[in-house]
DNA sequence: AGCATGGAT
């Protein structure tokens, strides 16, 4: 996406770091001497020179000069992320060619931003000018000036959709390729292909050691293997301990281990990996109680200890606590204090905590698994891979030699753990990916040159969905509607619903609902304030459907002028609501590009009905039908038994509902549920609800009854007989009447 | 009846 596009906002400059590591630390304006400046320059250069990768500059540049694609392997602390892109700039000299850029992708936003800042400092240029970064909602680049751009991998993937040749880039560096994010995997496939078309494009793939061979073989376009540059890391040794027997209860074992370390090991902070919010908060409470007991028994030998939880739904301010210093000894010469950070796998890659000397690794994490047969993504607690275990271990050796306690046997590590975590492309719903590839003209999705090919069944499921949504025709080619859908940063169901919503005179409302569904959960429910939070939620609930409740929350937030206190009083996350507002305006700009009108219906009852009709146009494959008297529902066609998620505010138990997602936690649940009428299913999704091919059962019988009633009505002249909007492009100019 | 990662657009 070009940076001169008004679609993106410029973020305020990142404030200069005041840390003691900053080469300008202690500098006071208008008092600087030449000696100070030289010292700062020397300091920057010396830090760079100490990086292992610096010694291999010449080797890298030779390899880079002579090859189009190279693989670069560097462990943590090698300096590859900050240095290699600079080396490439010295080689490419992109600033001589106006508008030319070197890009370096990162899987995470924070990394793109902080690395760009560091590199701007090293090159002595200002961030956002010569060196910049680009990610969703934040473009810190200047067209014409920026020649080195750090960006998220998803951002570059978006950019390819509109400029398949990526002509502005002289070199593209894919960093952290071993993480195998969906976006990086697709980019690898596309870039391998693009390299054949653009001989002047260079590609550098940077990864951890284990995967190098795989990438070398995959990118072997000029020989049996793509050339490799290998740089050692710079970390401290970590001693690894295993349990002798498998631990039946890993949380209990983890707590025991933390206490053991606290009593018996020397100073240094602890990092414990658990799987989720509840488990973490629980462990924090238990450890605190146990330590209090220990201190009571033996105050002279047990130091104070603080527990700090870390998971993604905490606010950035709360996350900052991981950098708090450990507590002071209770008496000047008493036993030293210790900090325990209890974290999800967010601390495995995304956040580094200095001062960690001990890691406790029970060997589990929550992972999404996709089951294409029932079209369901679910979160499961699963054993981690060897690569993950090593990554966790490494977190103990950032500042000095450390210890890692693995709560499983060495035999289990050797035999039971997989080498690598399965790449995301093998574990995901590919609906978005299929549209993106189709937009790039990839028609044979099964034979696309993937690093790891997804299961054909996953692709078939995604193609089937796209076809029912009329985004892809029966020959697998993208329809004009599909081309528009691919441009929205949304799941195809939501894109479809948004694009057809002007037909129902409710695009204004659907835009809000889609934005809310794309944002993080807005409801906060603190464990000690559950009742109050539920009461506050009840006041904002619209009993006709959870989608309408989401809309109501957003509108109330706007009516209350984004008030912080109002959010707080109503147990709502202001961060999530702000995010929804951001998404909403981004989507609105995309709508404007395609002249999709923003319209509404005045009559409130009609409006709600229209909204539900638009929902059906996108989510007709996610419909459940009530079976029997109680809260028992069966999903249509798949016949999966489901219940409403406890968070649902829908109280009337209607016969037919659409749902936004299926979640498998303690039970199969459907979350965010709204009542719909069965005749809409037949009218707006006739292909999917073709009863002649429908599985037999109560659902089919109910639909047949509806069909019969409809036929009678048509004879009475109630239907206007026009085409269903579910298969059409939106009409640009429409009458302001809602369809009957 | 009982709310469950983390990353991206």
TrEMBL record:
GO molecular function: ATP binding; hydrolase activity; RNA binding; RNA helicase activity
Keyword terms of this UniProt record: ATP-binding, Coiled coil, Helicase, Hydrolase, mRNA processing, mRNA splicing, Nucleotide-binding
Any one cellular-component term (Gene Ontology): post-mRNA release spliceosomal complex
GO BP, one annotated term: spliceosomal complex disassembly
EC number: 3.6.4.13
Coiled coil: 573-604
Pfam family, one: DEAD
Listed name of the protein: RNA helicase
Organism of this sequence: Lentinus brumalis
